[in-house]
Amino acid sequence: MKTPPFHNADRRTTARKRLVRASWLALTLLGLAWTSTVWSEPIVVEPPVKLTVAPDGGERLRGWLTEYDDFDFTMKTVEGETKQIAWDSLRPDRVMWVQEKFLARDDARGWYTLGSLLYEREDGEKLAESAWKRALRIEPGLASKIDRVRDGEVVDYDEPEPEEVIEEQPGHTHTHDHGEGGSGLGGPVTVGDIQSQFWGDLSDEVMASNVEKLKAEMLEAQKKINLRLRLYEDASDYFLFYSDLPPKEARQWAGLLDEMYDRLSDIFGLEKGENIFLGRGLIIVFQNEADYHKYFLLHHQHDSRGTLGLCLSYGTGKSEVALFKQRRDLDFARVLVHEAVHMFNHRYRSYPFLPSWINEGLAEYVSSELVDKGGFGESSLARNIDYGLSLMRQNKSLGGNAFFYASHIEGHHYPMANLLTGFMIKQNGKRYQAFINGIKDGKSWEEALEDDYGVELEPLIEAFGRSVKIRDLKP
């Protein structure tokens, strides 16, 4: 039996909370856990759709629908006003009527999402089944996800089906995924044992040789995917930046990566201009999502569906980030910086990998600094800081072992890791640097925290809790 109807406002709040929880749990090692349809960017409707609606059975509004997301749509009225209208302020049949005006016949994602939206509504079940029937004609593989929604789950279109996750072993590649609405976790890519000779001080010959190897590899990759990518070698001091974006835009993003590198150099006390990469870090930005997935499938034999970007860190010392350009610059910028921080962390000082809460926390902290406070505006993920704080207030804890000892922290832990990292750096940047150095030199993070940062875990978390106005916060 279906749940009795809520008042519209209550239903919307409840749906948001459920979806936010689902999206955060879906976020992956990339640390960005990243954008899901929960806080998805609006989809622009071109040309705008003319319609008349009466939200909550009230005043009739006439105008044009210009964009929409999972929760509401934007309407430009004939009077020139801009209105945000919640989907759940319309009857289910009117929601169906409106969306039928702009959803393409072959839009499996759109019909699936519409069905999921309607299924939660009282008297919406039959309409939901109708929308899902259209989705299944286009993409029969959606049947299992639709069954899960019928069973009460919140399942995003991009969420991969559950699969066995391979346990990481020393010497395997770490793969950091951004899952849009799904875990995005395809399992680590095994590339062999760590080769320690490719860390530390490297000769100019070794550095130059590896740059040429990367260029040769990218020539082969472009042949495989039948797509020309331009190399912007002069746009960055540290990265080989390949892209099919317009040149001006590509150079902008390459410049942002150098800003990130300089900020991390400040945090870790590197000499200005010191290059820690094995020649250069490899960055590949695709204009179209389909080309991104094609690249991973044909070049890496890796299923990238459900991700916004991937960071591959190899035992040979090579580091690579590939991603596709999202419509909103600020969300794309955050993914780009976050992934590139993982590259830096992989190459910094020595090969031991940082624990997930530290790795993700630093990636979140730096991307927050450069993107959210750097003139791009507030990204989708940044808005979920409040959600992380609410969880800490509710549980009086960061999550215990699930936070500090997880191989990959959960998505809802990312804002906590961000805030904790920022607190540690602001309290004493030199000690934070020594803390990371201790881990990279072979200490456990607990030993490095006590020996090099100078505090045990519980007092640290208690002080952190006071800084965010949460008393008696526990690890």
From TrEMBL:
Residues 169-180 have a biased composition (Basic and acidic residues). Residues 159-187 are annotated as: Disordered. This is DUF1570 domain-containing protein. It comes from Algisphaera agarilytica.
